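Input.
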Amino acid sequence: FTFDKENPSKFLTIPNHIAATRFGTTILRRFGLLDSMRDAVRFLALHGDIIAPLSGYRKLMAGSDIKRGGYAMTEWQHRDSFHIAILETFTMRCMEPLEYEMDTQPGGGPGLVDLVITSPGHCVVTEWKTIKIDFLDLGDSLSLDEKAEALSKLGISGVLELKFHKWEKYKKGTIRDWIEKDVTAQFKSYVLSPEIRELAGSREFHAHLVLVVGSRKILVWEMDEKGDWIGQPVLA
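Output.
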């Protein structure tokens, strides 16, 4: 989120929890989501189900005044916006992004779990990824807003089969191809890491890939404790 219409890359800094709560409450009330998100966060705390809070964030994301800077938000900017506007508003206990060494990570080196959400009965691990709208093959003749409109009309199958634009240097094929080839092994290494297992303890464990696609769709895919995908991904 930003208050600078001329430079959307200047994101707001929240100084403390009280300010975060007031900010989130104002934003949610403006979009008519305050009551539904309060219930969604309570459900998350009781059952470990993150879909409804993510659905609320998607509505905020799509309803905000978006210019090029908004479409270019990074995964950590989306993660922090979700954290502040949804979770912090209702005093959901969230851990800071957790960084640690993992022997099982592909390629070695430190691993970073984006957001771990804990309640007395549940531990929810989320790995946030973002695909910017400029790097999706939605038609070169379309403006950003037209691309966003086209993307908004797609269902889960259409999103998974979207191809990356030729400008994208590192991701090839479709979104499904990229998830299966590059994302699965990384996320599995997080789920199986001793640090995460110790953190979860006796809580019921949940792990979700959260993929923000073009600042219009949020794809969610759950992984089990063995590092295998559960069913098929869904849209929040």
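The longest strand covers residues 122-131.
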